[in-house]
């Protein structure tokens, strides 16, 4: 049941990742008339909110944890220069290499050079807002390097030539019937009798991605946290794709904003309780 | 107690019934209400729209009007608004520090420690939930964003409403969702704002309440605008008005 001329109505890729398209009020006026989008978002949002409330309810000191997290971030920002230098020292001591980029153009150029130095012409990626913001995938494509998103929702967005619509839930604007159509038309190796059952869609993505993981020489990740004292980088994920990206390829390039820092390993204790709660709700 | 009333801009210009009811309620509970002259805006509107420099003299005026609380001239300051209370607590000192006036920042902070939103004053300071009110109507309560997320009033307004005689208090579905007002957001992003309002109005209508109440007349103004255009027959009323209503002096519900 494939359409002959599929139209996914995705948002075209912007030239400037942070400044593109119509201004918000204009774009919103148009999107608000999209009944399918409104329905998809309304359903997903109410489901996620209910799940989040349940998950947060399991943590007795949730509000205290949030205050502690805010205080840790404020302290870190107040000591950012020395903490960043400590991070560089500790990453270097453990065999990593730290590159500094002043802006998106510098970051994209550094990553491109690193990939080219390996001789690879494709990379696998674990969901990263930093690389979304700097337009890394588009830059790599312009340099002849294919970037494959491995987070399920990011994969859906990428296959549909679309833009992510939500930080935690990038494909929240798509329903499962649309996802099935996207997989059948764009994935290349989706089973012919694919249904819109969520488990079947996830399995099709898993098989598709497994082949990418096994062949990839280079992975690009973001970072949820970087620990200055230990040089540890942390990515929190729920699909297994992060572990694959971080461990299988020979080269790992992590793009992180300087604000992802925490001073000590114990600080992760706070954030690793805070972050997974709402994230679990979106899974 | 001697309590200073800050009327708020929206209470002064559009909905005087909120500060009036606040004064009536507190006097009925045996307190003395004073209205410091020279009071004006708390500066919230300026700060929320990015006019922090322009907010400085406004904050200066607010602190000047209410700092007699520091000398014991009155015991507390009450605001019938969650968002104005939030501005006093979280914005005023910041505005002063930005203007390089550390002395005023400290005075603003000191005044803010004696400043309470109405439900906070009643429950936390005066230790009362049954205020002797009587209001035989079907009512639903909308927790406004700033009262809920900025100053964390929690269930204090509901605890007060539950004790009101004759009231039929019904839960509002998805109560914690924003009504879409958001100050100038409603003007700058009218389509999105009214879409959010449509959801809020649907939720209010589903309760079959006669009255929707809240601790902020700004949000109520927005919700009331939506309801009136639908001829929904649901009226907006500030929490203070319901709590001020008694058997002997009922608040008029007919529009």
From TrEMBL, chain A:
- What positions does the domain LUD occupy? 84-276
UniProt keywords (A-Z) are: 4Fe-4S, Iron, Iron-sulfur, Metal-binding
SUPFAM superfamilies according to UniProt: NagB/RpiA/CoA transferase-like
Q: Where is the signal peptide?
A: none
Name the chain's protein.
Answer: LUD domain-containing protein
UniProtKB/TrEMBL annotation, chain B:
Q: Which InterPro entries match?
A: Cys_rich_dom
List, for all copies, the residue spans of the domain called Cysteine-rich: 6-88, 139-223
Q: What is this protein called?
A: Glycolate oxidase
- Per the UniProt record, the source organism is Luteimicrobium album
